[in-house]
Amino acid sequence: MGGDGDSGEQTELVSGSGEEEGIPVNIRCSNGSKFTVRADLGSSVAAFKSVVAKSCEIPADQQRLIYKGRILKDDQTLESY
């Protein structure tokens, strides 16, 4: 049933509590794929990269996440950005 949206879009959650909360973060990979991840702002960038790796098939240690022109550092929380 041909839809207009991307059939490959996925949503995952990175959170310490396991509850569906957090903010939606839209991700665009270098291979052109797009998906949304719900993220707890208290999560570390390293934990967030692990979730992105599952959907983007790019290992976390090879990712470079950029937000507002700044490269996110693994030891920081998402909230710090």
TrEMBL record:
Pfam families in the cross-refs: ubiquitin
Superkingdom of this protein's organism: Eukaryota
Alphabetized GO MF terms: polyubiquitin modification-dependent protein binding
Gene Ontology terms: biological process: ubiquitin-dependent protein catabolic process
Annotated region (Disordered), positions in chain: 1-25
Residue span, Ubiquitin-like domain: 23-81
InterPro entries listed in its UniProt record: Ubiquilin (IPR015496), Ubiquitin-like_dom (IPR000626), Ubiquitin-like_domsf (IPR029071), Ubiquitin_CS (IPR019954)
GO cellular component: cytosol
PROSITE patterns with a match to the protein in the record: UBIQUITIN_1, UBIQUITIN_2
PANTHER family noted in UniProt: FI07626P-RELATED (PTHR10677:SF3), UBIQUILIN (PTHR10677)
Full protein name: Ubiquitin-like domain-containing protein
Organism in which the protein naturally occurs: Nymphaea colorata
